[in-house]
Amino acid sequence: MDNAMEKREQTPAGVLQRWFGYGAFRTGQEGIIGAILAGREVLAILPTGGGKSVCFQVPALLLPGYTLVISPLISLMQDQVANLRARGIAAAHVDSLMGRYTYHKALYDAGQRQFKFLYTSPERLQNRDFQHFARRNPPCFVVVDEAHCVSQWGHDFRPGYLRIPEFLDLLPARPRYAGFTATATPHVRQDMIRHLALRNPLVQVHGFDRPNLFLAKRHPGNRDRALLDEVERLEGRCGIIYCATHRAVEHVTDLLHRRGLSAARYHAGLSVAERRDTGQRFAAGDIDMVAATSAFGMGIDRGDVSFVLHYNMPASLEEYYQEAGRAGRNGEEARCLLFYSEEDRAVNARLLRSQPRPEHGLRLLDSMWRYCRWDGCLRNFLLQYFGEETAGPCGHCGNCGS
Predict the structure, then answer these.
(1) Is the pTM above the cut of 0.85?
(2) Whole-angstrom Cα distance, residue 121 to residue 161?
(3) What tens digit of pLDDT does each residue of 339-385 get?
(4) pLDDT confidence of residue 303
(5) Is 20 exposed, middle or buried (0-12, 13-18, 19+ CB in 10 A)?
(6) Using an 8 Å Cβ cutoff, are 186 and 388 in contact?
(7) E strand or H helix that includes residue 214
(8) What does pLDDT average to over the chain?
(9) What are the tens digits of pLDDT across the range 159-185?
(10) pLDDT at residue 388 in the model
């Protein structure tokens, strides 16, 4: 390798080309990467499909030592690690399902600089063995993925996220530090800065408007008939059908199979092996349609998803837009259709009222219901909810009539 090529590979653009195969950054990515490399703390809100993983993976590959990524789901960690390894990048994760030997072996290898990325959960940071490891082998960069989980105003509050600053204080020196999420209202952004104890962060909010997504909603009298009509019209294309419960996933899968349509299923009641197989086959393009609960899709980088259907109404706009945003990641036209009913609203409200502090969840549900009943531009409704400016009606959603 000549000197010029070697020098290029030590730049963000060179890393992007060599390890990820992209010739150029998307809008907003370079500013985030440059800030991280300059030592500035960052809070980045990039929508699903906006390339947020690249924003921390590229600088991590240019920094010495390893990067610790804090992630809320074991399945998400596994997917991210598998994606990195498939690119030839050394990565590992540690989680609560590991045997003692496997867990300690992963930490030992990380201490021996065998990995560039180590993924774990926020709760693991309170484990004494892990704290001892981190003090002796401090990360050069700490990334908080799904950072909205730190906010009680968010849709996925996780108390373990609140203790991340305590973990940072245990380290010999403060590492580079950044938080990433796909959906956050202005209120939640302020919560993330405060509760993650980010110091004078660069706050980058980019690209909630996805013009290639056609957003629509329906209140069908017969939901099953409406779903079959839609799927048959879209047959041969790649898509995800989101359902609220395990039972609904089984019902939809059976409905499709009885109609002679091929679809896999995915929910937490299935074996780990089946879920892993479905995720891998979908990512590889071996299957094109999955009926699933909300966990499916996280970490799966498939660009040709051309439709996302919601068989049930989610409990929040954050959840809805994150899932809908898994369509059209290649920039091509994609369809996002939401079915809703008063029964969906009642079921979600009943579940929320059974929780210790239901008030905020019920407010999020009210916003979701207002979207369902909205007769103006759907795109503008979402953009205003997430704090972005709007111009006029988009002309390209179910309510705008195009």
Answers:
(1) no
(2) 9
(3) 999 999 999 999 999 987 788 889 999 999 999 999 999 999 999 99
(4) 84
(5) middle
(6) no
(7) strand 213-218
(8) 91
(9) 999 999 999 999 999 999 999 998 788
(10) 83
At 87 the three-state DSSP class reads: coil
pLDDT of residue 329: 86
| CB-facing half-sphere around the CA of 104: CA atoms within 13 A | 5
User: CB of 322 within 8 A of CB of 304?
Assistant: no
CA angle 307, 309, 310 (to 5 degrees): 155
Distance (Å, whole) CA 37 – CA 52: 16
Q: Nearest CA to 41 among 175, 138, 220?
A: 175
Q: Say if residues 70 and 164 touch (Cβ distance below 8 Å).
A: yes
Integer angstrom CA distances of residue 346 from 235, 318, 342, 351: 32, 19, 6, 9
Span 320-351, pLDDT tens digits: 998 998 999 888 999 999 999 999 999 999 99
What tokens does 67 get?
A: 């990067």
Alpha-carbon torsion 93, 120, 74, 21, what sign? negative
* Strand bridging mode 117-120 / 264-266: unpaired
The β-bridge relationship of strands 305-310 and 42-45 is unpaired
pLDDT at 239: 96
> Is there a contact between 393 and 377 (Cβ–Cβ < 8 Å)?
yes
* Angstrom distance (rounded) from CA 316 to CA 155: 7
Nearest in space to 117 (alpha carbons), one of 140, 147, 136: 140
Question: What's at 342, amino acid-wise?
Answer: E
- Output DSSP code: residue 282: H
- pLDDT reading at 298 higher than 90: no
